[in-house]
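To illustrate the input format used throughout this study, we show a single complete record. The first block contains the structure-token representation of the backbone; no residue identities are included at this stage. The design step must infer an amino acid for every position from geometry alone.
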């Protein structure tokens, strides 16, 4: 076997320095996020519309968001008394969370431009929050984790706003319900952090 020594160690260190000058996340993470984000329904549709109109169709992001919000409310209305819809609702919810997480990662790792409109971004995050709350309420109702969609909606709102379930004793002791509650708390933390980051970015832009 070949002997190892300081030269081998320095060669490995130099390789890491050459391949990952800005760290693992900035290189590997960026490529992965860019690829995954580019294969979402939102990115694919946005790119197709941008090519059609030969410009950035900013209105489509808002329309896409409103369509998902409408779907969430429709699922909430249909969820009561229809436990068979539970996994259908969860599938839509998980995919929407997947898109939102990828958007956040894309914003962190790839998009280096300034925030175009702080007010527009905050309104967008507000609609995202409402959408998430309604989607979780629909899942809670269809399971059912709470008795009735009004109680499910109330507990979904309080879980999101307080970043924790208001009264865990009201929920069914079911692994699916506990998993949904934990996931909603995680999304509340994430969206709150993004709102704080957006406001901080706006303050920095005004000072520079």
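Output of the design step:
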């Amino acid at each position: 076997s070949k002997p190892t020594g300081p030269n081998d160690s320095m060669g490995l260190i130099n390789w890491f320095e050459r391949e990952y000058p800005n760290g693992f996340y900035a290189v590997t993470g960026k490529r992965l996020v860019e690829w995954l984000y580019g294969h979402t329904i939102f990115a694919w549709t946005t790119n197709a519309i941008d090519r059609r109109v030969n410009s950035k169709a900013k209105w489509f992001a808002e329309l896409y968001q409103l369509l998902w919000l409408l779907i969430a409310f429709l699922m909430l209305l249909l969820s009561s008394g229809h436990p068979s819809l539970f996994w259908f609702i969860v599938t839509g919810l998980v995919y929407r969370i997947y898109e939102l997480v990828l958007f956040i990662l894309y914003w962190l790792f790839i998009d280096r431009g300034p925030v175009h409109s702080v007010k527009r971004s905050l309104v967008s995050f507000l609609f995202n929050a409402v959408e998430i709350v309604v989607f979780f309420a629909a899942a809670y109702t269809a399971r059912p984790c709470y008795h009735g969609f009004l109680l499910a909606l109330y507990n979904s709102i309080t879980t999101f706003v307080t970043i924790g379930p208001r009264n865990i004793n009201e929920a069914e002791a079911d692994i699916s319900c506990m998993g949904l509650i934990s996931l909603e708390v995680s999304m509340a933390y994430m969206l709150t952090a993004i709102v704080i980051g957006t406001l901080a970015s706006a303050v920095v832009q005004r000072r520079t």
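Structural context for interpreting the output: Residues 38 and 44 are 7 Å apart (CA to CA). The helical segments are 6-19, 24-38, 41-53, 58-79, 86-109, 118-142, 149-161, 175-207.
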